[in-house]
């Protein structure tokens, strides 16, 4: 058996469902990527624009690269969170974030794959492991390695596994025969483009991240723009809508990696319980979870928005407490949520908060929210 075939077999035995080899040549999507950056669609994700030449060329990431193994690991959970879909007082998390952080899970297996390459190819074989950690266009590599095609929703799609899989790459200093790309199978379908509640797709294959719920709830560190808040629904960390509607995900099998199965309390936690998380409780609950990327203040910001969208005035006392959270970001979004829910109780707590609030941005949010409650009163009379 040649080295590539042996590594493929080893990758499958390590639990990867997808395996392919890409040539160590520059990314074909570099021009489109740079156009996307120039249009400002990356929003605040400045790291994506750092050194694009290096990102597009694996040999600039590591000069000895002669071949790139690309692997995919299925994370589709067995249990779906149907409860959160129908109950707006519960939060929704993107599927990839229900279990443990994937970086270490994939990196550990890729290091095992490298060890096999060295066992079989000799000690002169060297490699570098990449799981979202380095400047590489991983989806481009995966498409070139034949793991799937770029869907109109910009995700990589595989005929068997849909798009719920993580990608990782192993750069090797030994040449291996590259696999070819697979043909695209989106056809005339536009479901993902039509389903996005924030209209984040400016065209097929082009995502304006600034409108994407995943960006708004994870990457964006400051306030969520007011016009977009009502469109976020009850997503509190990421979003899967453009994947949920994709026909290629309908029959995709669930993954069997225990690290990715939903943690206790997920996938559909009560929003008010999340809003009550202290900094210590947040750290404890989301240790080794992708959710910690949003930090407590980001998650609670999103929870406030979701509560504002819930239409349930029974949550007003919880939001009233959040109006005094230690984080201005949380207080400001709690105010917005109260304004959106409206009612006399919300108006009273907003008015009272103005007496003590010192942060200028939060005051602005409280004033806008209070005006909203007054307009609701006028409309109601
Ligand atoms: S929903 Fe349709 S257009 Fe969008 S990625 Fe899936 S198959 Fe392609």
Description:
The protein is an alpha+beta fold and about 375 residues long. Among the domains are: about 5-75 and about 100-170, no CATH class; about 275-380, Alpha Horseshoe (Leucine-rich Repeat Variant). Helices cover about 40% and strands about 10% of the residues. The protein contains 18 helices and ten strands. A four-stranded antiparallel β-sheet has the order 1-2-7-4, sandwiched between helices. The protein has a two-stranded parallel sheet with strand order 3-10. A hairpin with a 2-residue loop joins strand 8 and strand 9 (about 205). Helix 14 packs parallel to helix 16 (about 330-340), helix 15 packs antiparallel against helix 16 and helix 17 (about 345-355) runs antiparallel to helix 18. The radius of gyration is 23 Å and the shape is elongated. The N and C termini lie far apart (about 80 Å). The model has no long low-confidence stretch (mean pLDDT about 95). The structure holds iron/sulfur cluster. Iron/sulfur cluster (SF4) binds near residues 153 and 189.
């Amino acid at each position: 058996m040649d080295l590539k075939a042996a590594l493929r077999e080893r990758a499958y035995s390590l639990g990867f469902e997808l395996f392919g080899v890409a040539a160590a040549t520059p990314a074909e999507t570099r021009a489109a990527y740079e156009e996307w950056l120039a249009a400002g669609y990356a929003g605040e994700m400045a790291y994506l624009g750092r050194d694009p030449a290096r990102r597009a060329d694996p040999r600039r990431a590591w000069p000895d690269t002669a071949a790139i193994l690309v692997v995919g690991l299925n994370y589709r959970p067995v249990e779906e969170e149907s409860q959160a879909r129908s109950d707006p007082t519960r939060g929704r998390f993107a599927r990839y974030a229900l279990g443990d952080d994937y970086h270490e899970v994939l990196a550990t297996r890729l290091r095992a794959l490298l060890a096999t390459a060295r066992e079989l190819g000799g000690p002169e074989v060297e490699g570098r492991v990449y799981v979202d950690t380095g400047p590489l266009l991983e989806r481009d590599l995966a498409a070139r390695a034949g793991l799937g095609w770029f869907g109109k929703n910009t995700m990589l799609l595989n005929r068997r596994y849909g798009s719920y899989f993580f990608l990782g790459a192993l750069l090797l200093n030994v040449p291996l025969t590259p696999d070819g790309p697979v043909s695209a199978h989106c056809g005339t379908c536009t479901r993902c483009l039509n389903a996005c509640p924030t209209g984040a797709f400016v065209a097929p294959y082009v995502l304006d991240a600034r409108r994407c719920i995943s960006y708004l709830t994870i990457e964006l560190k400051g306030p969520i723009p007011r016009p977009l808040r009502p469109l976020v629904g009850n997503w509190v960390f990421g979003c899967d809508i453009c994947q949920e509607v994709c026909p290629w995900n309908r029959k995709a099998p669930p993954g069997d990696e225990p690290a990715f199965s939903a943690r206790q309390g997920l996938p559909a936690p009560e929003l008010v319980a999340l809003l009550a998380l202290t900094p210590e409780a947040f750290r404890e609950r989301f240790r080794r979870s992708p959710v910690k990327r949003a930090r407590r203040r980001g998650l609670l910001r999103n929870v406030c928005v979701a509560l504002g969208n819930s239409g349930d005035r029974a949550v007003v006392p919880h939001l009233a407490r959040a109006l005094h959270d230690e984080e201005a970001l949380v207080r400001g979004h709690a105010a917005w949520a109260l304004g959106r829910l409206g009612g006399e109780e919300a108006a009273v707590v907003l008015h009272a908060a103005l007496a003590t609030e010192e942060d200028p941005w939060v005051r602005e949010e409280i004033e806008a929210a209070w005006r909203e409650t007054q307009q609701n009163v006028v409309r109601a009379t």
